Amino acid sequence: MKYSLNTECDFSELSSLTYVIATKRSGHHAFIEWMCSHLSDYLYLNNVNVNPDIERDKYQKPHIETDIDLDFADADDDVGNIHYKDAEVEHLMLSFENKAVKGVSRAGRLNSLAHLSERESVKTTAVLFLRDPINCLASIARYNEVNPNFKVSVEQQAEKWVALAKDFYAPEQVENLLDAKVKTVRYNDFIRNKVKVAHLLGNHVEQSTQRMSSLSRFGGGGDSKFGNAKTDMSVESLESRWQMLASPALLKEVFDDNSELRELSRRFYQGSKMSGAMKLGVETFLGSL
């Protein structure tokens, strides 16, 4: 679907512009929905396609990806997956899924936002959102097991995770590429302590105890592939996706064959609190840290 930001959206009171960059199956839609739950006048554009000339992967559902024209011209395009509460937009948020930071930085759409991001009153933030690799990749592998029409290469997805992890641990470089203040958020920290990451939205939510919903409305409903995941939002459940795999040995091969994945994974887990399920997963797929 295509969507143009037209004169129906008033950006005169815009105070924040936020980019969320994440991989598939990272839980970033739950994070975004939680962020939006604190905002009154927001416009959220899901899974922005940075290059409309490149055909989408055949498995991508059209209704959860947004081809967006950011020239702010009047247009009669169909509305894609757009969520907003008011035509007077105070907070504008865009998410980019499985897209490298360098690719996002070269997007003409971001250049079109320059007249907004350069305002002194607008806080521009890029959030790099990273989930632990074992459960992130296990989620992709589980999709492949239960959905014959969803054939995403776990090996290729591992490369996507590695690329984002490299940026995650080099935020200064990302700041230069995106001309934005960079915040790094671990999904595994977010599900434990949302107050810890609430500063991303400003002082008015620092003390918030708002919880994410059981299933994000922004994504494709992926947790329906994980049994009772719709109702069980415990840390132990969210960090045990790998235990639901029919063939965990196949995922073990992905880690064994990718030295960069192993190195960056160990770095991620060394700085993480871990549930019992995650500790067992690290032992299973990586051995000792």
Write the layout of secondary structure elements.
Elements: E1 2-4, E2 16-22, H1 28-36, E3 42-45, E4 67-69, E5 82-84, E6 91-97, H2 101-105, H3 108-112, H4 114-117, E7 123-130, H5 133-146, H6 154-168, H7 171-178, E8 181-186, H8 187-190, H9 194-197, H10 235-238, H11 248-256, H12 259-270, H13 276-285
Parallel strand pairs: 1-4, 2-6, 2-7, 3-6, 7-8
Antiparallel strand pairs: 3-5
Helix pairs in contact: 5-6
Describe this structure in words.
This is Sulfotransferase domain-containing protein. InterPro entries: P-loop_NTPase. It comes from Idiomarina fontislapidosi. The protein has 289 residues and is α/β, with parallel strands linked by helices. The protein has a single domain, classed as Rossmann fold (3-Layer(aba) Sandwich). 36% of the residues lie in helices and 14% in strands. The protein is built from 13 helices and eight strands. The protein has a six-stranded mixed beta sheet with strand order 5-3-6-2-7-8, with helices on both faces. A two-stranded parallel ribbon has the order 1-4. Helix 5 packs antiparallel against helix 6.
